[in-house]
Each structure stands twice: as structure tokens, then as C-alpha cells.
């Protein structure tokens, strides 16, 4: 996967840490049953990953018809967007949406970070600066992603050490957010 430059990522991470302190994010617990809006963040460079995430998004839409699902995929080559089938609202972004300091400056990804999703799913198995940036900058109320040691950017951490695949991560997210019940 194409990343930003080392200096660009380092400077961007430093500036992002300051920005997220004043994010105005209000954490709140959500499940599939009480969420009205869901954002899905993933690396769309791999067509198989794109397919699995699309299937997951479709499952949410079909089992919870009152929930709005929006996906945002990172593409190392923006030209491949034309070849990816889409079933739910899916937008794409690339390294071109970042400036020289590693900050997000334009495009659908910037809009995505400003939306107050009830739940944000980070469906990634590898660490990537552009996806990390979006996850941290997001104003989502409840963030769900894989467990990364010494990284507490999510409200629900899914341990994927047993099997670090997209399929396993999606399965675990589905299990936890289906079985856990929110207090009414």
C-alpha cells in the first residue's frame, strides 16, 4: 500500500494529536440496534477487501433498514476507483488528499471526518497513516477497530491476533455488536 512520505507522516501525526484534543467528539455506546448512522473505513486497494467490506455494509443495510451506511476506502492508485463495484454509498480517497504536512485538505475523506456517525468501523488489518488519520480525526460517537498495542483510538478494540484477516475482523465486529445490548 502506498503511504505518505516519512517526514509527512511524522509531521501529520504530531499536528493530528493537537487537533484531536479539540475534536468535540462525544463518545457514546452504540450497537446495530440503536445506531442510525454507520461509517466504514477501509483499504480499498485490494479488491477482495473491497468485496468483503461491501458485503458487510450490505448485510447491515438489509438487517437494519433504518440505518444509513457510508463507506470510505483508501486507494493507493485513484484510477482503480472506476473498476470497483459499489452497492452502498462508498467514497474513495488517496494520498493526493493530504498536504505536505500530512494534513487532510480536500475531498470526500475530509467530509467523512466531519460527520458525526453513531458508529465508525475501521476495517483494516495493517496500520496505514492515511487510514489512521481518518480514524483519529473522525467525530464518530463510537469507534470500533482492531486491537493495536498502546493505541487507544477506539472505544471497542477487537483482538485479531488469532487470525489477522478482514473476514475474521468483520465476524468479530458482527458478533460483538449483535450480542451486546445497550441500556435503554
How is this structure best described in words?
The protein contains five helices and six strands, in the order αβαββαβαββα. The chain is an alpha/beta fold and 184 residues long. The protein has a single domain (6-179), classed as Rossmann fold (3-Layer(aba) Sandwich), CATH 3.40.50.2000. It has a six-stranded parallel sheet, sandwiched between helices. The radius of gyration is 16 Å and the shape is globular. It starts with 5 loop residues before the first helix and ends in a 5-residue tail after the last helix.
Note the run of SSEs as H and E: HEHEEHEHEEH
Shape, principal axes of CA atoms: globular
CATH homology superfamily name:
Glycogen Phosphorylase B
Largest sheet: 6 strands, parallel
Mean pLDDT: 83
Beta fraction = 15-25%
As for the number of domains, it is 1
Any low-confidence stretches, pLDDT <50, length ≥5? Answer: none
Query: Can you count the beta strands?
Result: 6
Number of helices: 5
CATH fold descriptor: Rossmann fold
Give the proportion of residues in helices: 25-40%
Rg is 16 Å
CATH architecture: 3-Layer(aba) Sandwich
Distance between the termini: 42 Å
CATH class: Alpha Beta
What is the topology, as strand order, of the major beta sheet?
A: 3-2-1-4-5-6
Amino acid at each position: 500500500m502506498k503511504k505518505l512520505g516519512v517526514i509527512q507522516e511524522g509531521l501529520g501525526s504530531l499536528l493530528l494529536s493537537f487537533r484531536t484534543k479539540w475534536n468535540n467528539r462525544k463518545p457514546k455506546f452504540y450497537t446495530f440496534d440503536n445506531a442510525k448512522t454507520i461509517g466504514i473505513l477501509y483499504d480499498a486497494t485490494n479488491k477482495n477487501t473491497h468485496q468483503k467490506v461491501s458485503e458487510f455494509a450490505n448485510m447491515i443495510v438489509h438487517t437494519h433498514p433504518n440505518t444509513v451506511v457510508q463507506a470510505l476506502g483508501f486507494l493507493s492508485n485513484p484510477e482503480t476507483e472506476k473498476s470497483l463495484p459499489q452497492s452502498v454509498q462508498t467514497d474513495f480517497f488517496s494520498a493526493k488528499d493530504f498536504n505536505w504536512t500530512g494534513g487532510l485538505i480536500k475531498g470526500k475523506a475530509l467530509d467523512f471526518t466531519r460527520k458525526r456517525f453513531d458508529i465508525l468501523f475501521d476495517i483494516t488489518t495493517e496500520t496505514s497513516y492515511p487510514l489512521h488519520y481518518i480514524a483519529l480525526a473522525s467525530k464518530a460517537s463510537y469507534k470500533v477497530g482492531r486491537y493495536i498495542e498502546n493505541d487507544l483510538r477506539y472505544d471497542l478494540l477487537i483482538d485479531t491476533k488469532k487470525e489477522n484477516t478482514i473476514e475474521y475482523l468483520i465476524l468479530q465486529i458482527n458478533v460483538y455488536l449483535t450480542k451486546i445490548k445497550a441500556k435503554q
